[in-house]
Amino acid sequence: MSFCRIHGIMEDKKQLTWKEAFLASPGPVSLKKAAVLSLKGLCMGSADVIPGVSGGTIALITGIFENLIQALKSLDAIMVKKVLNLDLKGALAHVHVRFLLFLFAGIGIAIISLARLMNFLLHHYPVFTWSLFFGLIAASILVVSRQVARWTPRTGISLVAGTVVAALIVNLIPLETTDANWFIFLCGLIAICAMILPGISGAFILLILGKYEFITATLKNPFLPQHFIIIFVFCLGCLIGLLSFARLLNYLLQNFRQLTLGFLTGLMVGSMPKIWPWKEILHTKIIRGKLHVLEESNIMPQTLNSEVYLAVGLAIIGFITVLIIERLARE
User: Fold this and answer.
1) Helix axes 97-124, 126-145, angle to 10 degrees
2) Computed from CA positions of residues 41, 44, 48, 54, in that sequence, does the dihedral angle turn out positive or negative?
3) Residue 277 and residue 269: Cα distance in Å, rounded?
4) How confident is the prediction for the chain on average, in pLDDT?
5) Tens of pLDDT, residues 243-268
6) 284: phi then psi, degrees, rounded to nearest 5
7) Model confidence at 15, in pLDDT bands (50, 70, 90)?
8) Helix H or strand E segment including 246
9) Dihedral (Cα; 192, 198, 199, 200), 10-degree rounding
10) What is the dihedral of CA 259, 264, 266, 270, to 10 degrees?
11) CA angle in degrees (0–180, nearest 5) for 239-164-272
12) Which are the contacts of 41, defined by CB distance < 8 A and separation ≥ 6?
C-alpha cells in the first residue's frame, strides 16, 4: 500500500465524527435490535442476582454468549494503544461499544431494580421461586447440550468434569468474611467470572464468600457515599475479571469448542441440586444478627397439595419459556 493511500486513511480516521465512530463499532443496527439486546441483558441481570442461576446461561440460550465474549475481547491492547495516542474516536470504533452499552444497560437496570425483589421472593416464597428457576435451568441444559455437534467419550468426560466442579462449588459452606475494600475487589473479580459461565452463579459465589447480602444491601441505596465506594470497588474487580476471563473463554471456544460446551453443560447439571425447591435445613448459624443456612438436604414434598401443584406448574412454565426464548433467538 502506498504512502499516499496510508496517509489518506489516517486523514479519514482523524475526520471521523463521534457519531460515525459510535456507529462504526459492532453492535445492534436498529432500535428494535438494540431494545431486544437490552431485554436480553435485563434477563441476564435478573439471573445474576439469584444465587444458583447464571447470567451466562441466559446468554447461551438467547444466542449472545459468543458475541459477549468477542465484545469483551475487543477491550484489548489495540484499544489501549489508540487511547494513549489520543485516537479516542478510533478506540470507540474498535471496541464493540454499542453491543456492550445496550447489553450492560439492561444488566445494570435489572441488578439495581431487582435486588430487593429477589431478596423478598427468596425469603417469602422460596419453593415457588426455586421451582421456576429449576424449570429454567433444566431447559437450559437441554438447549446447551444440543449445541454440542457430536457427543464422544471426550465430550462425555468433559461433561462429567463440569458436573463434578459445579457440585463441589455449590456444596461449599458460606463464610463470614472481611468488609475491607481489597476483599470486595476480590469478590467482584471472582464473582464476575462465574456470572458469565453457564451453570455457576456469581450470586452464589458471593454467598460462599459471605458477601451476597452485603452487596445487595448496598445496591438498595447505591447513591449513599459509603455504598457508592463499595459498588465502585466491586465493579472495578468485575471489570478486571471480565477482561481477563473473556480471553480465556474465547480461546477455549475457538480451539476446544465441543469440549468447552460439554463442560459448560456439566456445570449446569452439577448446579441442579442447589436449585431443587424442597429442602430440609440441617444446620444454621447466626452471623451479624441474621440466620444463615450452613447445611441443607434435598427432600421430596411430603404431601400433594395446591402448593406442590403450583410449584410444578411454575417449573413447567420456566422450562417452556426457555425453549420459546431459544427458538425465537435462533429464528
Assistant:
1) 140
2) negative
3) 15
4) 80
5) 788 788 878 888 888 998 899 888 88
6) -125, 165
7) low
8) helix 225-255
9) -10
10) 160
11) 80
12) 102, 103, 104, 105, 106, 107, 109, 110
Q: What is the CA radius of gyration of the chain?
A: 22
Between CA 119 and CA 126 the distance in angstroms is: 10
pLDDT at 172 over 80: no
Q: Which three cell numbers stand for residue 184?
A: 470486595
Task: Report the distance separating Cα 100 and Cα 211, nearest Å.
Answer: 26
pTM of the model: 0.68
What CA–CA distance (Å, rounded) separates 210 from 203?
10
Contact 144, 26 (CB under 8 A): no
Per the CB < 8 A criterion, the answer to whether 95 and 76 are in contact is no
DSSP states of 56-68 = HHHHHHTT-HHHH
Rounded mean pLDDT, 282-286:
72
